[in-house]
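Chain X:
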Amino acid sequence: MIWERLRTNQDEFKVSVVIAHYNAGNYIRKSLDSLVRQTMNQDDFEVIIVDDKSTKPLDIIQEYESKIKHLRIVVEDQNHGYPSIPRNHGIAKARGTFIMLMDQDDNLADDTLLTFVEFAGDDSDVIIGKYAEGKMYNGTQVPFKNGTNIKEASIITDYILSTLAPHKMYRRAMLNQYDVRFPDSSYIPVEEDQVFNMKAYSVSRKISILADKDYYYWNQREDFGNLGKSSSYTYNEPWKYLNILSEVFNIIEASPNWSLAQQSKLKAMYIGRLFNSSYTTVIEIIKLQKNEQERETLIAGLRKIINERMDSQSISEVRQESRWMVLGIKYGMNDEELSNLETELFSGEKSLAQNTQCINGETVKNLSIHGRLYAIPVGFLTKETTLGSKGNEHHSLM
């Protein structure tokens, strides 16, 4: 039972910092040094490093056993190749009221743990701190653009969906009560943190944002060897892309907190994000598939999800930069036709501007899809967008 599970691991610390580790070498020093410097009393937090059976010695981590009072090193029995399972094991072993998830290459501002806990109080279940900007720091800035701390942030209006990375603080009781865990890589091998965070968001009483200063330093290593970026960490098979979209929709629909109207809006917001991040678009994902059959399998699967789980209102709320892709898939286009539509949209800007009309406040153009005319929003073509940009996805708007 849930209550029995909660009782087996009572709170002994204010925070448990959980770090999945694999062959980090000297790169983990910055992370551990920032924990040594925390203004929170060392009696109040523990650090759990879960090693995914590294092939290199753990001597650098062991140096910190004399510097961090409550440091535990847990070594996995086998290598998993992804951070999901090590993170889950760290969460299971945690004894803090809150769990702070960090990557092995990253570091915190000196007052992060203390500030987060104090701001959370007794009712915030997820605390999101501002990511640092600058060279090699890749965190999103969208939820923090006003520099305002928000005790109870809105999932709809405060850009929370733009930050689905796991570098946050979570109330452990919430994670345990609702079984919020990272999915196994055999089911969700790409963007597993999106599933984890969407589940956490969906059951949290309050989600808080701390935007007044930089708290988390998300470091892109110079050798690009960050944890979790294995060769299979790509949407190169249809099931990978279909599973994450389907699972996120499952989470949205099962939320005890979100109304039907919010669920409809969140589906639109998420598919808009997934179909058009600044890493890639769904058109490029389709092209990644091995052959025509797999491309059609992916498109057919996406069409089924869109038709069965999004109504016309939800589709109308997808941001314009993604909506043309959603509509093209919905109305039966294959991969070649989608590519042709993309070419028509982006190479024919001038002709599009000459043959448009305004419907419900949107600039649209009637485009033929399988012999029928559909109103496709094209207003985004005259605005600055991130479409096609190959920067970090966490800079893109929802």
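Chain Y:
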Amino acid sequence: MPPTTAELIEDQTFGFLVDRRTFSLIGVAEPLEMARKKVREALTDQTDESRVDDVVLVTDELVANAIRHAGGPVSLNLDFYEKGVTVGVVDRGTDTTVIPAAPVCFLADLDDAGLGAISLDSLPEDGQGLFLVAQFAIAWGVERTTFGKVVTAAFDLAGSTA
């Protein structure tokens, strides 16, 4: 069973919840653009620019996945804690079993010789997004909601992890 948002942050030193913002993405012509803008605006003066870029990248991936695989995003949720933030993208998809508990990058297990033997044309153009989420967020998870699911990523605001 994937972790809930509460479980994502229970081992982190985020402190208390200090702000919650929710943005509807239903019927938005450019949900990716809106989500990036809202996250960037919300994190201005909260952390360094490289960390803002990390959170925007992950948000972009979560919204793109909702568009590709779940009929589009419903909302963007930002929960601000004393020392961290969680980004949740709600969609109408109900199948949480198709989301791997630990995203895998098929390049991760290759040594230098194996990496050198790969043709750039053979690399997949998609399917690596959750690997990025796992690399940039300190934790992430998916949970069912009343009408779909929410995929949530947690970030400390101390600086970039990548």
